[in-house]
Write a structure and sequence with these properties.
The protein contains 15 helices and 12 strands. With 320 residues, the protein is an alpha/beta fold. α2 (31-42) packs across α7.
């Protein structure tokens, strides 16, 4: 076997080993998982994550996932906990402690602290009879699965299962909360995720910036409004303020003959595409790309225009 083939074989073996372990784990979830989700959901304070070594790295990631999906959480290092950081853990918190063996000595003070002050303790380990799981209020047992490395000792499968369990807990709590995209944006205002979760209302032009005229307005005045607002479009409203049509540069070209003798209602394109102000800007961009238009009016529940979003607004904000 060539070196390349051997490397590919190793990679595939590791992925299969860990994948099979995850599938097995999924089939073994029990009432203890439900109890853990309920405890995390009901926490009046924060979820305190802790673990040593590789488990500590996994705990940090789980804390970040929980925090970004609506469940306040942070990581407390076991060694630092023994030197004052136990004070960061309150009676309203829930502790979620990770240890593959369940016998990590550095965790003893955190475990004892939760027992002393009746702080709910969720333990994750591979041995049901371990110190951690025997002390825990809720014990989550990792399946007995082989590590993926050739010597069977390096934390690989076990850390993958622990990380996946953390994701499963976070998503279950997130869904129980009814967490929505706009909630997600609250915790992810920056970067690509933030851009994809921007609402139309966050980018739209409103108030005096809106190019609006009434149906009876003469086209001479309509042209002045269109020029002043610089969107290349003007919205037409009826006597109730409902958007009934739009006039674009293209409509002007198609109605050049006798244009200045017409009113807005005679030139406008009726029934324009609109969008809700609470819709995602990505949805607005999709409509504009599909319909080959550059603007969309945002209307309220009564059909009255409250904003205008331009394709350039979306692109400048990084919406894709």
């Amino acid at each position: 076997m060539s070196d390349s083939a051997a490397i590919l074989d190793t990679g595939a073996r590791v992925l299969r080993t860990e994948g099979e372990a995850l599938l097995s784990f999924a089939g073994q979830l029990s009432q203890s998982f439900v109890d853990a989700v309920e405890a995390l959901y009901a926490a009046k304070g924060r979820v305190i994550m802790s673990g040593m070594g590789k488990s500590g790295h996994i705990a940090r990631k789980i804390a970040a996932t929980l925090a970004s999906t609506g469940t306040p959480a942070y990581f407390v290092h076991p060694a630092e906990a023994s030197h004052g950081d136990l004070g960061m853990i309150t009676a309203d918190d829930v502790c979620l402690v990770l240890s593959n063996s369940g016998e990590t000595a550095e965790l003893s003070d955190i475990i004892a602290h939760t027992r002393r002050f009746s702080i709910p303790l969720i333990g994750v380990a591979s041995r049901p009879d371990s110190t951690l799981l025997k002390a825990a209020d809720i014990a989550l047992v990792l399946p007995d699965a082989p590590e993926a490395c050739s010597i069977g000792m390096a934390p690989t499968t076990s850390t993958t299962m622990t990380l996946a369990l953390g994701d499963a807990l976070a998503v279950a709590v997130m869904e129980k909360r009814g967490f929505q995209p706009h909630d997600f944006h609250t915790f992810h205002p920056g970067g690509k995720l933030g851009a994809q979760l921007l609402s139309v209302s966050a980018l739209m032009h409103s108030g005096d910036a809106l190019p609006l005229i009434t149906e009876a307005m003469a086209m001479g005045e309509a042209l002045l409004v269109m020029t002043a607002k610089s969107f290349g479009v003007v919205g037409i409203t009826d006597s109730d303020g409902v958007l009934t049509g739009i006039i674009t540069d293209g409509d002007l070209r198609r109605n050049m003959t006798g244009l200045m003798d017409k009113t807005a209602v005679q030139v406008m394109h009726k029934g324009p595409r609109t969008i809700r102000p609470d819709a995602l800007a990505a949805e607005a961009l999709g409509i504009m790309n599909t319909k080959k238009i550059t603007c969309l009016f945002a209307v309220d529940a009564d059909g009255k225009p409250v904003g205008l979003i331009h394709i350039h607004d979306c692109l400048r904000a990084g919406v894709q």
